[in-house]
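Request:
You are asked to prepare a plain-text protein record giving the amino acid sequence and the backbone structure tokens, at your earliest convenience.
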Amino acid sequence: MKTTLLKSEDYTRSPWKNGGGILTDIADAHRPGAAVKDWDSLLWRFASTPIVAPGPFSYMPGIDRLQMVIAGRGLVLKAPGQEFDEREPFTTVRFTGEMEIVTELEAGPVEVVNLMARRGAAEIELAALGEPGERLLTAGTHLVYAVSGDCGIRLNSEAFVIPAGSTLKIELTEPSKLALVSGLAVLGSIRPAG
């Protein structure tokens, strides 16, 4: 087991793929040996971003996406023939990067977290941790993002405090137990496909 605290002041900023906004890169991984770390070499990315006006989502062929509102409310994603309801915060929606999606904001701007992965390279999950309790983490990479205020967790028998806005990156080679002790967090989980 390896843990790394990713501090909010060290996050990087980059434009959305379609240039319509700015995202905060919390953690990512790219193909080994890629000359340039860009959307084409991306294996997975965990990021947050504000959505301040209705508009189209970036076209990302081959990318699976999970999204969750962490501040504000009233977000709906509209795609041909269907919609993804994120009106309530901490609801996870799953969609593909090929979908033509336009956002609708029913109650003003929101802040979201996104977990994206190249299809066939990784399997992803995104969950809110709001109630104290224990869950099993599989082998892979897990990101515990402290959404508002400091967050206390226990990993097996070791205690951690994650400062507000920071993320604990957990790399596991075997299953481990994660318990939320205090605070509110979002858990992003990435494991190799297959």
